[in-house]
Amino acid sequence: MSEQQSQASFFASLIQQIPLHANAKQVYGEPVERDGTTIIPVARVQWGFGGGGLGRTPLAQGGGGGGARAYPVGYIVLREGKADFQPISDPSSAGALVAAGALGLMAGVLLAKLLRR
Fold this sequence. Notes:
Shape: flat
Number of strands: 4
């Protein structure tokens, strides 16, 4: 099998696997029903993958990899024929973003002062 055929086979296999794992079940969890109210968990799912090789011969080394990340973003409440999305906010992520921005600003000011000298 040539290197190009091997790569094509790898990518064909990868493409067949994506629909099995990247689907609505990854975003919407199993519904929970109690007292006429149904709760459906909602998550954000991100997928990424890549691959490559060195050289042009069948013996050339190469590889690939991938990963996924999922985290909750909210839930849907179904009650009396109405659906309502309730977001889940993470105050720690907002705080970290503000702290990183402030740190970057301070570093930029200090660097600008040092470069002016």
